[in-house]
Amino acid sequence: MPVSAPTFADVTSSEASLKRFLHGLPGVDQVGAEARAAGLGTRSIKTTAKAYALDLAISMVDLTTLEGQDTPGKVKALSAKALRPDPADPSCPRVAAVCVYGDLVAEARSVVGDGADRVNVAAVATAFPSGRASLEVKLADTRDAVAAGADEIDMVIDRGAFLAGRYQQVFDEIVATREACARPDGSHAHLKVIFETGELQTLDNVRRASWLAMIAGADFIKTSTGKVQPAATLPVTLVMLEAVRDFRETTGTQIGVKPAGGIRTAKDAIKYLVMVNEVAGPDWLTPEWFRFGASTLLNDLLMQRTKLATGRYSGPDYFTLD
User: Fold this and answer.
1) What is the CA radius of gyration of the chain?
2) pLDDT tens across 82-140, in order?
3) How many domains is the chain built from?
4) Which of the following is catalytic: 141, 222, 246, 300?
5) Which of 47, 150, 205, 268 is surrounded by the most beta carbons within 10 Å?
6) Is 74 a catalytic site residue?
């Protein structure tokens, strides 16, 4: 349910006022949220709608590799796949972004190029995945990625600070990171704020983190790093979608949502798209406002897409393994 319109300058004027606001948000009925998410997850769609949903989901993927063994060659190959997910079918849409560590941004950029219709390059920053570093280190990490050509920055909040109730510290770090996303031309890399919802313990905390990040200037709110289980879940994403919907009703500002981690099949992705439509509304059903953070999801989407077109499944090695 929407909260009454706050004056955010007052809300963030002190640790105490920020805490009062966040703890004054309506509580989440966990049983109700889980039941609604389960109900939405049972919706079926017709074949023509499924074809549209598969292409839409492909266009929403942030194709991701975030491993210590990542190499320039792997990132370049992944970036080429982002541009042409199915080389045999030029009608297949591009993905939304390639997501890599900051030191590999230039490698991805060298493949996706700089055109207006390019695949974006996203970089994880701010001591990903733990978020445990000094603010100076986090901001340097962000500035380096932006300078290398990152279109988007996926930052992680300090969950320890959040769970200890140091909301002002988390707020200030998001504000400072957004400022570090600035480019010389006055634009800024889009900022996605990762909560690591598997460590936030309650859906009430997910709602509080969502509002905290949005007030601080996040362009997107994101569930997880993919390094902690559970990662993205339907109930958690439901709460975040309610938050962005209510935030727009309150402020007029639209914020994106990105579930990440554990979404591996086309069937799972379609459940999320149904939820987006039913909870936030069709305005969020574009890559501008909704993303999937995933590595293996794309291949299943491509296999299901081929099945609809040909009537048969391709072998598991028909598409490249990421």
Assistant:
1) 19
2) 999 999 999 999 999 999 999 999 999 999 998 778 899 999 999 999 999 999 999 99
3) 1
4) 222
5) 150
6) no
